[in-house]
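Thread: quick sanity check before group meeting

JM: Hey all, I'm pulling together slides for Thursday and realized we never actually wrote out the predicted structure for the chain we discussed last week. Dropping the sequence here so it's in one place. If anyone has concerns about the input, flag it before I start.
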Amino acid sequence: MKKSFVGVLVAALLLYPGCSTSTVSTPEPTPTNSADIPGLPFPLPSTLSEQEFQPKVGAFLDSLAYRSAPGWQRDKGVRDTGPFINGVYYGTHPAVRTYYSPEVFAWMKGGRVGPLPDGAMIIKEMYNPPAARYAGLDPDTELPPPTWTYMIKDQAGAYDGWYWGYYQTGQPIDHNASPPFSYPNQTFGNYCVQCHTSADGEFTFAALENVEGQPGTPITYFDDGSWKTMKGYQFKFMGHYLGKEHAQTSDVIDDNLPPAGPDFVNPEFVSQFNTLAASLANPAVPIPGITTDRSVAQTHRQFVTSDQCQSCHSGDSSPFGPNMFYPDIEPDGVDVSPWAEWTWSMMGLAGRDPIFHAQLESERNIHSAQGQYTPESIQNLCFTCHGVMGERQLKLDDPQANLLQEQVEEPDNQYGKLARDGVSCALCHQIKDYRDVPLQTVQTGAFDLEPRTADGKLTINGPYDEVATLPMEKSLNAHPRGNSFIQSSHLCASCHTVFLPVLDENNNVVDSSYEQSTFLEWDNSSFRDGGATPKSCQECHMPDNYFGQLTDNFKIASIQDQTYPFTSNLSPINLITVIPRTKFRRHVLLGINEFALEMFQKFPDLLGISKVNFMSGTVDGLTRAIENSHDLATNHSATVDLLSTQRAGNVITSVLKVTNLTGHRFPSGVGFRRAFLSYQVRDGADKVIWESGRTDAVGVILDGNGQQLPTEFHQNDTFQPHYTTITSEDQVQIFEEVTLNLQGHVTTSFLDRATEIKDNRLMPLGWTFDGPPGFAKAFAEATAPKGGAASDPDFIDGTASDTITYQATLPPGAVGPFKVTARLYYQAIPPYYLQDRFTFANGPATKRLYHVTAKMDTRNTNFPNWKLPIDDEEVTVP
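JM (edit): ok, ran it. Output follows.
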């Protein structure tokens, strides 16, 4: 059993009181009669809750009764699990003395053949290394108090067949009812398989030469004696990693707001959005903690949660690394492993996204009738992508069932656990190649999964043909293989081409439309496969470098292989050798929704996450994700250029060009996201004297008198049209989609989209009205501009840009020189969208979003005043 951390590779906490205290719900057990288990004085773990089981096993270990129990055997002495060199211990465990239940000893004597029976148990007593400290001491009377790791065979609990545990005297029962949502100490599906799966039988390296009274000599490792001069040397668990987080900083500070703190409430936000203000007096309903969300491998189960991938596919900061880990780039190092970066992507957070859950609650309220669509089927439709593993597993188990929001918010609901794990590892890597079928058959998350192998294992697609299959086959009942589809943009197509019904007031279908068309936009661009400048989704959203430093010579998984200390009973090395790769693609998987990422950064307890990466020990993965997202926003999204600016009398005229750098529309995705331009003129005293696109403190766009524009909340269903020339401060170029419902009112409901009256989101390079050859007419329509943009020559010319002329009339007496600044801003959740959420529902999910947004202190984020700067340019005119 192994934990990998900087400077230490140990399995357990040694004499450290701050161990993890979270629990894991027991998988569906097949009870075994404890009377049939001669070696154990307690029932199997799968037959009890953790609250019932852990005290029993703890009491057994504390009593040391196994030392004298009939038939139990033990090692010849305390032994090392790796060398001790220059003050660093290279062991996979601390110094250990192992005890074997009668079943395990009989199995070892029989040549380690066949399976071990349920109830077989191995106990490692662990001591501060190296083993030389304990030479000559009586093991029963002179050794210091141990800590323990143990394994109990219990085939009902998980596919690997073992319950794994770490224990120290006085350790509380794991629990998951409250933060900090620590990784469990005792559980099925534990990280221990990272090493133990490399054993040639039954996940154990147990060898007779170690056992007292048996022939042979235990393996020994080099010890240079450097520990002798290290005062007070002992191993600590996680102590190095509980440092402060890296704060996001901003140059913009609103001194009128109250000081930041746990009780911070933004009065300007509450003043603007006051419908749910009273709810702030009560705690918001939290999303269940992430340590609840563990679904381990079972023969019958299609999906596992990402923690089952975490142990091998996290960064290794141990002495055996670094692997997928840069120790020197940031103060605490940077984990660029698949699990670590996916975890903080909006894919990894999709099942916990408070914005999504509030939207879903709105849809349920707006569409509460029982027509062709019911509120239940609407929820299931939304979870097709946002809670996909839970929705799919439920359908596999009960084809008639719908996954409901209430289930997803239940801590112990097995489908809720899977749903909250988001768009997870086991999902994307099981999608069946659908490049040869019409996209219409798989859109809106309707893809098929890969069939199982002939021997019943899950088929897991990856980018490499030459892979070590044994570890995943043994631990997860999964067969990894190379498949080029995982590298294709088409992998993203199904969930990023969303075709939804349009419902009337009775929830009957009257039409349908593309609510999201990001993949279609890419396909209708120069970036498509075979286009003039081909570039896949993965090339932008899964970079092969960390801010210029290539992800070179990393292994895509860290397991016990030839880089670890030699051990007995290791599987053939060719079956467990992981090949170093050149430029593997990082699982960043981000857009520029920093608004949502900051919600998780500032409210981890409410949203049920833990910021500690258990395997590599880093604590700032979410901060790194925000940095990655901000880099995408400011360097790879769009540019603003003032092509010309001149003054004639009291009028300053500028020609401004905005260019989309992305391979799809900007903004793309859900239709409520928007970007807008601010064109500002300041006089010689640096005072703003004219501005189109100014905002207040919560991101509401204002007119020249500082009043909110009626179009901001679509009063009387008004909106800002697409402009080619702007001459007034109440005219603003907003790149957005505006849709009407069947009653002719502007809507943010995904199922009310009867008419698109405006869509001037910037087109990608190479876009055309008809699309590439073979492009379906419906696809072309979905990617076409609507409203005035459709007839704007420079908007529809395929250059991914838009040109706007600004004519600013200076006030009388204005004195220059005048500074003209053009800025492009982005809002993932514009004010009108939030107003709709807080109006159409008031359930727990909506109140949670209100709680998060009202208490969000944006002063130390990249979007002070609720708008994210993308690019700007400034010129001076006389």
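AS: nice. The first helix runs from residue 50 to 63. The longest strand covers residues 638-648.
JM: adding both to the slides.
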